[in-house]
């Protein structure tokens, strides 16, 4: 909340226990002058074991209408869990984030979007990068105790250099 003071922050969450934890233990203690913070319940339909099915015909994450047309200048993808075959994986979250960034840039709602993906050393995340992040410009890598966090910058220049659908 301190880094996005007076801004809007949305947490997309699929686990009921975390939704309750955030609602009861975190949000009620936010200072009144902090940013707007919302918890958006979502449901993921893909699984790590079904990733090739997703990559062959990706679908957008189904989000509530209230946030469907929102634009985000910074996105952090650190969920859902994605290391076991029955976990949802981060394919839907990543695809939704990149497609939303492209839409917002092409509609001139944002000049640039930074998207950060955690655990990029894992096989699934490397495939996500190859399939969805190629239109961005690699901007930062941070190695940490809990995995590597990597960020890409998307803007009109990166999109137009790598696509023929932009002037």
TrEMBL record:
InterPro entries: IRX15/GXM/AGM
Localization of this protein: Endomembrane system; Membrane
Pfam families named among the record's database cross-references: IRX15_IRX15L_GXM
One of the GO biological process terms: xylan biosynthetic process
Protein name listed in UniProt: Polysaccharide biosynthesis domain-containing protein
Highest taxon of the lineage: Eukaryota
Keyword vocabulary terms for this entry: Membrane, Transmembrane, Transmembrane helix
Listed GO CC annotations: endomembrane system; membrane
PANTHER family: OS11G0490100 PROTEIN
Topology term for the membrane: Single-pass membrane protein
UniProt source species: Clydaea vesicula
